[in-house]
Design goal:
Number of domains of chain B: 3
Helix content of chain B: 10-25%
Strand content of chain B: 25-35%
Shape of chain B: globular
Strand content of chain A: 5-15%
InterPro entries (chain A): MPP6 (IPR019324)
Region (Disordered) (chain A): 1-20, 149-176
CATH topology of the largest domain in chain B: OB fold (Dihydrolipoamide Acetyltransferase, E2P)
Number of strands of chain B: 17
Strand order of the largest sheet of chain A: 3-4
Oligomer: heterodimer
Protein name (chain A): M-phase phosphoprotein 6
Number of strands of chain A: 4
Order of helices and strands of chain A: HHHEHEHHHHEE
Pfam family, one (chain A): MPP6
CATH class of the largest domain in chain B: Mainly Beta
Strand order of the largest sheet of chain B: 9-10-11-13-12
Largest interface: A-B, 31 and 50 residues
CATH architecture of the largest domain in chain B: Beta Barrel
Biased composition (Basic residues) (chain A): 165-176
Largest sheet of chain B: 5 strands, mixed, barrel
CATH superfamily of the largest domain in chain B: Nucleic acid-binding proteins
Number of helices of chain B: 7
Helix content of chain A: 40-55%
């Protein structure tokens, strides 16, 4: 590559030196990167312009007026479900198909009163109970994540609860 | 009815759009233009509404849903089906829903509709299902509850399936599934053995599925039975005996063109026998 570049600079030198000798390099050659160092600004501009022209000629675009889609306040909806509050399409009566009967109640109730159902959902475990439960778990789970060396620090107190013992073991100076 | 049709025809000749709220529960014809309450104010008495309407956007706009039988065309609302114009008041904010209550037999698949289909072919991963539309719908074998690649659902050609559309538009083949978005069947899938399938008009299906339909309530008191309604105009019925099944099918078919009194008579006679 470098050898080539040197060749190029030499050839441009030749061109500038002997322009009157009418040895012209082709445009494609002049457009190459390594040739442009030696070019004067005028020819550079000319080449750039030509390149732009080629690009713009090859560039395709749609000859259409700009679309101005306004936000519409009419929404199209082709389903009757939204318009008429239709029931669920499967029905069973007088215990012919108990499964469907159960499903029917469930599906038709869903349409009618969704909000009411939400309110009546009972909590299996109250928040207070949950908090109390996790209180005792703090130590146990803490122990799980502690390193082996620290595990000994979790000492059981008289209640049987495990509590993290924060005091670090330090060297105790032996008494004389 | 005839009077209403006359008015509709008149307005067509005049070529003027009518306000939607003035033709509620009246007959509208395809090609007619409707004006929504928001547009109506701008429609001055001088007929210069077209120009005035352009600067009506300053007011806060409410969203209006146009249902089956209506089409939005730019800012205009056009009627595409013949029937009575219906309106539902909005639950919260918004302008409610307008639609045309029409009588028709031809079913056009609509996304979200629950339909009864007949499996016509089994080809590789999908079933072809006849739903009464212009084109058979496709149904993937994975679109059943509990189906996996290894565990294929037991569906044979000729089976009836109850499912809903997930893809339904004018450019693409409709696609059905037999599960909801959570992957549960919820009553969809292959409909059991025996029973009788028959076709009725699409209007009757909607009439029967209306929450306050007394026909279904009466029918339910007769004897143990099971019914499946497809929005594509198909009804599947089953009772303990063939005779009971046939009676049921006949009642449902016949009650479309009966008055409330006639229906009462029929049901009382049936209850006696």
């Amino acid at each position: 590559m470098r050898g080539r570049a040197r060749d190029g600079s030499r050839s441009t030198a030749e061109v500038s030196m002997a322009a009157e000798r009418k040895t012209k390099l082709s445009k494609n050659l002049l457009r190459m990167k390594f040739m442009q160092r030696g070019l004067d600004s005028e020819t550079k501009k000319q080449l750039e312009e030509e390149e732009k022209k080629i690009i713009s000629e090859e560039h395709w675009y749609l000859d259409l007026p700009e679309l101005k889609e306004k936000e519409s306040f009419i929404i199209e909806e082709q389903s009757f479900l939204l318009c008429e509050d239709l029931l669920y399409g499967r029905m069973s009566f007088r215990g012919f198909n108990p499964e469907v009967e159960k499903l029917m109640l469930q599906m038709n109730a869903k349409n009618k009163a969704e909000e009411v159902e939400d309110e009546t959902v009972e909590l299996d475990v109250s928040d207070e109970e949950m908090a109390r439960r996790y209180e005792t778990l703090v130590g146990t789970i803490g122990k799980k994540f502690a390193k082996k060396r620290d595990r000994a620090n979790y000492e059981e107190d008289e209640n049987g609860d495990i509590k993290p013992n924060k005091s670090k073991k330090t060297f105790l100076k032996p008494q004389d | 009815m005839a009077e209403a049709a006359g008015v509709a025809a008149e307005s067509l000749v005049g070529g003027r759009a009518r306000a939607a709220c003035t033709v509620l529960n009246q007959v509208v014809l395809p090609g007619e233009e409707l004006l929504l309450p928001e547009q109506e104010d701008a429609e001055g008495p001088g007929g210069t509404g077209e120009r005035l309407r352009l600067n009506a956007g300053a007011r806060p706009r409410v969203r209006v849903v146009c249902g089956p039988g209506l089409r939005r065309c730019g800012d205009r609302l056009l009627v595409t089906k013949c029937g009575r114009l219906r309106h539902k008041e909005p639950g919260g904010s918004g302008g409610g829903v307008y639609w045309v209550d029409s009588q028709q037999k031809r079913y056009v698949p609509v996304k979200g509709d629950h339909v009864i289909g007949i499996v016509t072919a089994k080809s590789g991963d999908i079933f072809k299902v006849d739903v009464g539309g212009s084109e058979p719908a496709s149904l993937s074998y994975l679109a059943f509850e509990g189906a996996t690649k290894r565990n294929r659902p037991n569906v044979q050609v000729g089976d009836l399936v109850y499912g809903q559309f997930v893809v339904a538009n004018k450019d693409m083949e409709p696609e059905m599934v037999c599960i909801d978005s959570c992957g549960r069947a919820n009553g969809m899938g292959v409909i059991g053995q025996d029973g009788l399938l028959f076709k009725v008009t699409l209007g009757l299906i909607r009439k029967l599925l209306a929450p306050d339909c007394e026909i279904i309530q009466e029918v339910g008191k007769l004897y143990p039975l099971e019914i499946v309604f497809g929005m594509n105009g198909r009804i599947w019925v089953k009772a303990k005996t063939v005779q009971q099944t046939l009676i049921l099918a006949n009642i449902l078919e016949a009650c479309e063109h009966m008055t409330a009194d006639q229906r009462k008579q029929i049901f009382s006679r049936l209850a006696e026998s």
